[in-house]
Design goal:
Layout: H1 2-7, E1 11-15, H2 19-27, E2 33-37, H3 39-42, H4 45-55, H5 60-85, E3 90-93, H6 107-117, H7 121-130, H8 143-148, H9 150-170, E4 179-182, H10 188-208, E5 216-221, H11 224-228, H12 230-233, E6 239-242, H13 244-252, H14 260-268, H15 285-299, E7 304-307, H16 315-323, E8 328-331, H17 336-385, H18 388-412
Parallel strand pairs: 1-2, 1-8, 2-3, 3-4, 4-5, 5-6, 6-7, 7-8
Helix pairs in contact: 2-5, 4-5, 5-9, 6-7, 9-10, 16-17, 17-18
């Protein structure tokens, strides 16, 4: 691993939602968190009830009151993550899944929620039914939730910033710069709408605390349109993180959960050689990523880019990420050593390729010089036998050739 770290240029982060996962990843060499999925924190027994109250609320005030109950838990979770990472970067993704994933399905839980809300069981069941979507993975989720319910984004922003400020006070030597990641954007205007909410909330928290805390707001590139319009999206996003799980299924047009039913037939027919959800499709999905990085950096040269899909721990995918200029890959804790090794191998392979290309160029230059010398000798022989008018013509040609040699020496050496 020490040898690998000596050669690699690609950073390796981890996908972690708990302090335990973060600590394990740090032990295995992770240099930060590339993806913290905040929704996993809502499923804890002591907070799911409040989140369900928020979902079933009728007014903004009711939703804010329910979210206020969750805020301390979320803040505490983030503080533990910052502590575990000891000043390394932490990217926190805001709420992503559709709300129907959080509602109760058992009759007893529905009755309990109805009692807490002061509503009838039938009313709660009606709300749950109303959340049903035919294609929820392409429905009301990600930043679309924040557009509809800005109070969710406000609560999560408060939790992130307050946690960072508290940990920074306890550890002033740590360089803590929260990275807030807004998921599922596909248009610069919708990203700006949510970012403005985040920035206003964050700035108010920082000012109230008398802090000089810096933070970044970026987005997850997981919709093909986002990759295609990356130049515009980069006007609002300070970083990109490729969510290649969703980007792959939206590019191919088939579901990650259902593709197993037919992919074996594709392998047998030699249509696909690999599972595109395990090994990054460099031809299609990869082309979108490469385009997004290039166009995003034209707009914002300091833009930093990473990947946090399952591909972040696959060696061939890591090599591709190195090639297109990503700053980091993020993977599950136990795949961190694999990613570190793959990143080093990619860097070494690139250097070897550059050396081979340089050697090939040198060989080509030497051949051209040899050919030129041969031509020069023939000209000199011809000049010896030529008349005065021809000699003058040849002399000019020789002078031009010598000037060319002088320029070549400046560029390529003797």
């Amino acid at each position: 691993m020490a040898w690998a770290d000596k050669y690699r240029t690609l950073k390796v982060r981890t996908n972690a939602d708990t302090p335990a996962d973060a600590k394990k990843a740090r032990e295995l060499g992770a240099e930060g968190i590339g993806l913290c999925r905040t929704e996993h924190m809502f499923f804890e027994e002591d907070r799911i009830a409040a989140f369900r109250e928020m979902i079933c609320s009728d007014t903004v005030e009711e939703r804010e009151a329910a979210l206020e109950k969750i805020l301390p838990y979320q803040q505490g979770d983030f503080e533990k993550l910052y502590e575990a990472l000891e000043g390394c970067p932490v990217t926190i993704r805001f709420l992503d899944p559709p709300l129907h994933e959080f509602v109760p399905t058992e009759e007893a839980d529905i009755e309990k929620l109805a009692e807490a809300q002061g509503k009838s069981v039938e009313t709660i069941k009606g709300i749950i039914q109303g959340l049903h979507e035919f294609n929820p993975m392409m429905g009301h989720r990600g930043l679309r939730l924040a557009v509809t319910y800005p109070e969710i984004a406000k609560m999560q922003t408060k939790a992130v910033i307050r946690a960072a400020i508290n940990v920074k006070k306890a550890h002033p030597e740590w360089d803590i710069v929260p990275e807030i990641m807004i998921p599922l954007s596909c248009d610069a205007k919708e990203l700006k709408y949510v970012k403005d909410i985040v920035v206003a909330t964050a700035d108010a928290e920082i000012e109230a605390a008398g802090s000089d805390m810096k933070y970044e707001v970026g987005t997850m590139i997981e919709i093909p349109r986002a990759a295609l319009t990356a130049a515009d999206i980069a006007k609002e996003a300070e970083f990109f993180c490729f969510g290649t799980n969703d980007l792959t299924q939206m590019t191919f047009g088939f579901s990650r959960d259902d593709a197993g039913k037919f992919l074996d037939a594709y392998y047998d027919a030699k249509i696909f050689e690999n599972d595109p959800f395990a090994k990054l499709d460099q031809t299609g999905v990869g082309q979108l990523m490469e385009m997004a990085v290039a166009n995003g950096k034209k707009t914002r040269p300091e833009l930093h880019c990473g990947i946090c899909g399952e591909h972040g721990g696959d060696p061939s995918s890591v090599e591709f990420c190195h090639k297109i200029g990503l700053d980091y890959v993020s993977c599950s804790p136990f795949r961190v050593p694999i990613a570190r090794l793959a990143a080093a191998q990619a860097a070494i392979a690139e250097k070897n390729a550059e050396k081979e290309a340089k050697d090939a160029t040198k060989e080509e230059i030497e051949k051209r010089i040899a050919d030129a010398k041969e031509t020069l000798a023939k000209l000199q022989d011809a000049a010896a036998d030529a008349g005065d008018d021809i000699k003058d013509f040849v002399a000019k040609g020789l002078k031009s050739l010598k000037a060319g040699f002088e320029e070549a020496k400046k560029t390529f050496g003797e």
